[in-house]
């Protein structure tokens, strides 16, 4: 039997293979009507849920998991990528990363100051921002520390643990360019310093060219107001840039001629190189992908046909191709990209595969519209060494054992 199947013949071949191997694959429906289950003979539960809806109780394990080496105010909560469908992350499952906990800000008293090298400094209320024409865009956000556990050796036992610091949502707000037009820029302006209202006063320096391009001051996520852990009532959003630059609880934007060289862009969020130097201002997130099903922690219960499913993304634009290998990179097959395929957004890919019970190494390799190709682990380590912490985007490997257990490996 061929290892790779076309989608048209997947079901037909799967049923034939299942019959030959005695597998418990779906069978054609019987000619007689099925028995109506007892639970369908009476009324369902009354509509007494809380005013804000909640998932089915059968989905109770689809939750964020928290990893931290320090206090919970500095913890990271990871998105359960293997259990999500499509490309949109529900608000309650969006990853979190905090430096000093989650502030409780009153939207009626919160203010955004825009000053510095401008003709007319302005203090905006939330109501002021709501008066501007709004935009809504579907964008991915990835923490630059996502997958940092993989630099030295395979550490985490699930795709949630390795790649869970990433989420994709519809963001709504005001283009930052509109606010900068409102105050007027002086000729010497080249940077915008963004500061949050949390107790760490998180600060990042944003190139003016980015601020005038696709940056927004967001106040809504997936159709509702931002949640407190996502920056309520307003946050900066810089699509394609590392997540920490999309400053939450935004309180101040200062236009300057130079970057600030703040703590979070000198002591932190820099990339140590093999020669001892550190790379500063590595803003854009590189092309990346990962297979989410099957992935570490899963177990294949039966031989036969199935789909390999995963996600790809790039901070530089659209994904143009994803290749999948089932033999540790010895050979590759083109995966199908599911629509929609959007810029700086998660793209879901699939590939039909027949598991025959033999060991396998599953990998995916993405390409974006700039031509950037996701590197192997060997290529990334050769260029960056193993002392880096951020911007790990190497090809991820999952090992399928003869018993069907899937684990995290380096090859």
User: In which range does the helix fraction lie?
Assistant: 10-25%
Mean pLDDT: 90
Q: Give the N-to-C terminal Cα separation.
A: 27 Å
CATH topology of the largest domain: Sulfite Oxidase, Chain A, domain 2
CATH architecture of the largest domain: Alpha-Beta Complex
CATH superfamily annotation of the largest domain: Oxidoreductase, molybdopterin-binding domain
How many individual domains?
Answer: 2
Radius of gyration: 24 Å
- Overall, the morphology is globular
Number of helices: 6
What's the layout of helices and strands?
Elements: H1 10-21, E1 65-67, E2 76-78, E3 96-97, E4 112-116, E5 122-124, H2 126-130, E6 135-142, H3 159-163, E7 166-175, H4 176-183, E8 191-196, E9 203-207, H5 208-211, E10 216-221, E11 224-225, E12 235-237, E13 250-256, E14 271-272, E15 278-279, E16 288-293, E17 304-313, E18 319-325, E19 333-334, E20 336-337, E21 347-355, E22 360-368, H6 377-384, E23 397-400, E24 406-409
Parallel strand pairs: 4-13
Antiparallel strand pairs: 1-2, 2-3, 4-5, 6-7, 7-10, 8-9, 8-13, 10-11, 10-12, 14-15, 16-17, 17-21, 18-19, 18-22, 20-21, 22-23, 23-24
Structure write-up:
The chain is mainly beta and 411 residues long. It folds into 2 domains: 91-269, Alpha-Beta Complex (Sulfite Oxidase, Chain A, domain 2), CATH 3.90.420.10; 288-409, Immunoglobulin-like, CATH 2.60.40. It is 10% helix and 29% strand. It contains 6 helices and 24 strands. It has helices at 10-21, 126-130, 159-163, 176-183, 208-211, 377-384, and strands at residues 65-67, 76-78, 96-97, 112-116, 122-124, 135-142, 166-175, 191-196, 203-207, 216-221, 224-225, 235-237, 250-256, 271-272, 278-279, 288-293, 304-313, 319-325, 333-334, 336-337, 347-355, 360-368, 397-400, 406-409. The protein has a 5-stranded mixed beta sheet. Strands 6, 7, 10, 11 and 12 form a 5-stranded antiparallel beta sheet that branches. A 5-stranded antiparallel beta sheet has the order 19-18-22-23-24, with no helix packed on it. The longest helix has 12 residues, at 10-21. The model is unreliable at 1-5 and 10-24 (pLDDT under 50).
């Amino acid at each position: 039997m061929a290892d790779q199947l076309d989608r048209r013949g997947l079901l037909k071949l799967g049923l034939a293979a299942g019959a030959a191997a005695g597998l418990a694959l779906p069978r054609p429906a019987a000619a007689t009507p099925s028995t109506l289950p007892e639970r369908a003979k009476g009324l369902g539960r009354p509509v007494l849920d809380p005013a804000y809806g909640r998932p089915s109780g059968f989905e109770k394990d689809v939750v964020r998991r928290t990893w931290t080496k320090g206090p919970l105010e500095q913890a990271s909560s990871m998105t359960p990528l293997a259990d999500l469908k499509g490309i949109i992350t529900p608000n309650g499952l969006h990853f979190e990363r905090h430096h000093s906990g989650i502030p409780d800000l009153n939207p009626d008293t919160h203010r955004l100051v825009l000053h510095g090298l401008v003709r007319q400094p302005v203090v905006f209320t939330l109501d002021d921002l709501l008066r501007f024409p709004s935009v809504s865009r579907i964008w991915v956000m990835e923490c630059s520390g996502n997958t940092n556990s993989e630099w030295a050796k395979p550490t985490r036992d699930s795709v949630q643990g390795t790649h869970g610091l990433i989420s994709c949502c519809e963001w709504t707000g005001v283009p930052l360019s509109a606010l900068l037009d409102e105050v007027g820029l002086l000729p010497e302006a080249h940077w915008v310093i963004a500061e949050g209202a949390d107790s760490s006063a998180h600060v990042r320096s944003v190139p003016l060219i980015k601020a005038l391009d696709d940056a927004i001051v967001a106040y809504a996520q997936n159709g509702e107001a931002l949640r407190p852990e996502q920056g309520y009532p307003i946050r900066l959003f810089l699509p394609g840039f590392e997540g920490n630059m999309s400053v939450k609880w935004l309180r101040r934007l200062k236009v300057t001629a130079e970057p600030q060289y703040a703590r979070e862009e000198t002591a932190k969020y820099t990339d140590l190189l093999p020669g001892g130097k550190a790379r500063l201002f590595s803003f854009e997130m590189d092309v990346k992908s990962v297979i989410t099903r099957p992935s570490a922690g899963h177990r294949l219960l039966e031989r036969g046909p199935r789909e390999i499913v995963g996600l790809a993304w790039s901070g530089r634009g659209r994904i143009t191709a994803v290749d999948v290998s089932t033999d540790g990179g010895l050979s590759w097959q083109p995966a199908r990209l599911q629509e929609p395929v959007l810029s700086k957004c998660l793209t879901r890919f699939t590939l039909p595969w027949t598991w025959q019970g033999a060991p396998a190494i599953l990998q995916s390799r993405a390409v974006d519209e700039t031509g950037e190709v996701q590197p192997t682990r060997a290529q990334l380590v050769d260029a960056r060494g193993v002392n880096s912490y951020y911007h790990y985007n190497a090809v991820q490997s999952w090992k399928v054992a003869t018993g069907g257990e899937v684990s995290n490996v380096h090859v």
